[in-house]
Amino acid sequence: MIELANRKRIHVIADESPPEPEVRRIDGAGENLWRVDVHVGPEGDVALPGKTAMRSLPEELLSEIDPDLDLRACRPEWLDLFYVPRLLPSRRETPIRRLRGGMVQPEALFPPENRSDLAETSFPWGNVGKIVNNEGNHGSGALVGDRLVLTAGHVVPWQSEEWWMRFVPAYYNGQSLHGAGVQSYVSDVRGYNPDLLGGDSAGYDWAICRLYEPLGTVDRLGHFGTKTYNPAWNGQGFWNNMGYPVNMWFLGASLQGFIAVEDTDDDINGGLEIEHYGDTTKGNSGGPLFAFFGEGQPRITAVQSGYQAEDEDMGPINVAAGGPGMSKLVAWGRTNWP
């Protein structure tokens, strides 16, 4: 883990001969500062491309899952376990007064803004990361296996023939708090195919990603467990939601705790829509909705999907995607992508 954290990796396209880096010391810098130059060619520093991105019906995964698979969390002994993370002072922008009265402030779906800034490496808070892709979209995800990340299906660039996704756990102000080299591109993705059941559905808006770099092993960062949401938990405010908002004042993750689920909608195929009033904005998509079950067992029950401007029963509401189909998708990943 130390070696991974202390190495910065780039990918370049070169001719038959490999690039040769040039290293020199910067004189007069006042400290031991070095410059590393490498010839990157006209395309520059490039992303590591993904290999496969497959979508299928939830029931198609059942035959490829180990029925005795353990979906518990895994915490490395060297990482502290914090049930409550250390929060940063708020950097929220001050509202601006309008000429005719009233106030203008950054977008918050359910004022007042209840999210806190987070810069945390302890378990499990340091297992949530920022995702960016080749289409310029931003999202969030969480480690759920040795090399698995759970996110929202709409964060995946399904329509791109040549695609890439990059996951940075504990992202803060440009890099991981675990170390500059602690990040990974995604090699493969598996998710739900909306075309087979009449279009996209928020209840199936989940995807499992396989990383090139096994960041979630027991000797590295560990990973979350998952648990199928039980509607009997509705109204109980013990859920946490983390993510990485963009175009706001957050330098790293946002966290809101003590969220209660207002209602759920499900179907017979394993999809579940979880409605809540937690604060989310662009970039929070794919962030985990989770709670602690037993000692040291953080379990994800859903990933943030989106916002419905007007629900006939609830009014404006946020929706997360969960259900037994999500748990089975993670089980499929643990079975087939160790």
Description of the molecule:
By secondary structure, the chain is mostly beta strands. Helices cover 5% and strands 33% of the residues. The strands form five sheets. Strands 6, 15, 16, 17, 18, 19, 20, 21 and 22 form a nine-stranded mixed beta sheet that branches. A six-stranded antiparallel barrel has the order 7-8-9-14-13-10. A two-stranded antiparallel sheet has the order 1-2. The longest helix is centred in the C-terminal third of the chain and has 13 residues, at 324-336. Residues 104-108 have low confidence and may be disordered.
Please describe the topology of this protein.
Blueprint: H1 2-5, E1 22-25, E2 34-37, E3 52-56, E4 96-97, E5 103-104, E6 116-118, E7 128-133, E8 138-145, E9 148-151, E10 165-169, E11 171-172, E12 175-176, E13 184-192, E14 207-211, E15 225-226, E16 239-243, E17 253-259, E18 261-266, E19 272-276, E20 288-292, E21 298-311, E22 315-322, H2 324-336
Parallel strand pairs: 3-13, 15-21
Antiparallel strand pairs: 1-2, 4-5, 6-17, 7-8, 7-10, 8-9, 9-14, 10-13, 11-12, 13-14, 16-17, 16-20, 18-19, 19-22, 20-21, 21-22
